[in-house]
Amino acid sequence: MPRQNIMWTVLPRGGVSAKLRFTVHVAPRLVIDTGNGRLSDFPDWLNWPATLADARFKLHLPETGAKPARLVSAPDSARWRALFDQATLVRGHSFTGRENRLVRSYPVSHVLSFLSDRWGRFGATGVDAPPSYDDLTQDGAFGPIGFEEVTVGSHGKSGCTDPATAEGDYILDPATRVLTRTAGGTLSDDAELVVSYVAPGIYASSDEEERTILSTAQPAPPVVRQVVPLFRWDAPATDQSRRRGNAIRIYLERPWWSSGAGEKLGVVLVSSSTEPPQALRPYLTMQGVDPTVTDYLLPPYPRLASFPRTTKSATGVTLAEVPGTTVTIAGHDVSFDAARDLWYADVELVAPNGAPPAAWLPFVRLALVRYQPNSLDGYSVSKVVQAPMAQLSPERKATLVRGSGTATISVTGPAYTGNSWLATTRPSMRAVVEQANPAVPDPHLRWEEITGSAVALTATGSSAQTTWTGTVVTSGGPYGNAPRRVCITETERHLGGTGRVVYLDVLAL
Q1: Nearest-CA neighbor of 181 among 191, 192, 171, 190?
Q2: What's the rounded Cα separation, in Å, for the pair 147 and 141?
Q3: CA distance 117 to 127
Q4: Residue 497 pLDDT
Q5: 217/96: higher pLDDT
Q6: Given this model, what pLDDT does residue 149 score?
Q7: How far apart are CA 122 and CA 318, in angstroms?
Q8: Per-residue pLDDT, 150
Q9: Residues near 267 by beta carbon (within 8 Å), at least 6 away in sequence
Q10: For tag attachment on the chain, is the N or C end more exposed, with fewer CB atoms within 10 Å?
Q11: Residue 153 and residue 171: Cα distance in Å, rounded?
Q12: Cis omega (within 30 of 0) on the bond before 478?
């Protein structure tokens, strides 16, 4: 049974005398079940103007709802019947189902970026001639998207103007822009010749120049996730191992670069050696020691020279929190830890002369900002954030001197000597000989302490430079000639008998 559907498309046409006008596009869909049909199968369309004359229209607008509309222009019945009669063919069409077909969709911005990039490459490399079809469709260019190869014939050799003798399919007169088919060409009478005009390119070149655009907005404050101690080991000489401490790693929440490239984590420092104003102190980096376990004092406000990992600094910077005062900023580079999905910066503290601090386990409270060196005056730093209090681990150097069946161990570095009434809280240093169990494959878990080999090292010297020494027996052990090593452990002892390990190192025998 024949069926019909009509799609009405309303197109605004402005207004006349405070009345809105619309053009309505009518698209009929006449459906034949099998084969072809005739217009007589669809009586509404034998005289469509008459059918339309009996129709009534309403236009639905979001603001006003349904409003009546009237025809001001209608098709003419005589013309319609002259064009379409009962025998007019209605050709059947079977639509292909697309309900299970996937459709790829691309954001417009990606398409524009793709086109701009590809055309930019051709503009940079093809300065003498427009790209060919092969250039456009090769891998790394556009591929076959949007291009359909059309054979348009071959141009005759340059200089020949006689169609009777010229080679190729046609010749071109540049002055008149007339194409003439050659006598020996392959273009047939009904051949389609595709002609397009390619405008000459406009090219300019200049020396590369890099410019920095200064930031005009204050950076966002950093968000500190965690502060942890940082260590590094090296071997200054044979049978020596040195642990470098006095550094911390500051993990920061994403995102970074709130003010653009070049943004750093800034440590806020005092600007002069004089005592800072009371209002400024909560916004400055401070350091100190536990007076019950050391007799070496530190200046409370470290200066710029104590931060060797600084990559960019600024003096005379005003904080928004304390107008009228200035500070120094020690900028540190920020890196990304993909495993933790966090940004981080490493901050190291040394004595003003560049040597490791002589204090034992000092405390530091860092005052931090985002620091953008490329900023207008007054916009280089964010508001100040106080990092959690942290302790710096002191430097230690362990040395092994080999003897006959023995080894003398010495460890140097700052420590606590303290007063006699607190002698029980002083750190203790212990050395023990370990041997590898051949039956355990794990390189870390295979080591076992040789019974009776442990020795307590004796401390001498001052708090700033303490030396622990002791001798261990290197022979014996349950596994014959299996590898041996010396394991050194330093334990900080607290009142009440508890403690924590603050240093551990090994030296191979």
Answers
A1: 171
A2: 12
A3: 16
A4: 66
A5: 217
A6: 42
A7: 51
A8: 41
A9: 285, 307, 310, 329, 330, 332, 347, 366, 367, 368
A10: N
A11: 11
A12: no
